[in-house]
Prior knowledge:
Layout: E1 2-7, H1 11-25, E2 29-33, H2 44-49, E3 53-57, E4 65-69, E5 74-78, E6 89-94, E7 97-103, H3 113-130, E8 138-143, H4 167-177, E9 181-183, H5 184-188, E10 197-198, H6 204-207, E11 210-211, E12 214-219, H7 220-223, E13 226-231, E14 247-251
Parallel strand pairs: 1-2, 7-8
Antiparallel strand pairs: 1-14, 2-4, 3-4, 5-6, 6-7, 8-12, 9-12, 10-11, 13-14
Helix pairs in contact: 3-4
This protein binds one DNA strand through residues 9-10, 12-13, 34, 36, 60-62, 106, 108, 145, 199-204, 240, 243.
Amino acid sequence: MKIATWNVNSLNARWHRVEPWLREQSPDIVMIQETKQTDETFPFVELSTIGYEAAHYGQGRWNGVAILSRVGLVDVVRGFGDDDEEARIIAATCAGIRVHSCYVPNGRALEDPHYQYKLEWLARLAHVAEDRDFSQPAIFGGDFNVAPSDLDCYDPSIFEGATHVSEPERDAIRTLEATGLIDLTRRLNPGEPCFTWWDYRRGSFHRGWGLRIDLLLVDELLSAKATASYVDREARKGEKPSDHAPVLAEFAD
DNA sequence: ATGTCACAGTCCCTGTGA
Length: 253
């Protein structure tokens, strides 16, 4: 079993990279963020021809999350269940695993109202994690827009006073972990930065100026079966890449 | 060091969000 998460920064603009990547990597389950599409334009048919069922919660210009699966996909829930909320979370059950594709708000700046929205959104995500069925394997994957520790940031001194590294944000990740979720990539790669995002600007990728903000949080049931977790840096190279690389994990059957 | 990208409206440039 291979599971991946990838913020594609527009599925329409990225299809020329995503479609061949799905063929090559052949993950069983993929959590996608920032599709930037409505359900009407989402490539359900194209995904079907390469073996994927899909569920999408789209908004149009911004946000948009999806789950792709070649091992079944049922019991889809879009969002937290509010009216007029942004399209930032979708859940489904695939091969008995409760899968959540998450796109945490950016926060913009510590003094920006969007930062409070980010913290509130993370608190609501923690309630979803607390209220889950603990007899069922669970994974919360996606773009968390938080670097959980200084190891996950190429230069913490540059990020002093910035979002993505503040203590309230890191506390929110710890609150999620306190529900029995494990930051799998970190557990399996202690001491390795494993960056997942590099700014398009200033040649950040080739300079190594990255952050690890795309996470796979898995429960103990899945963690016990995990054999590997890694970042596919190749997907960040080449023509018109997303600014995020995919994160993958492999599990024994 | 705002050295980039994608989207949509103001529509071939500009504002917004990342």
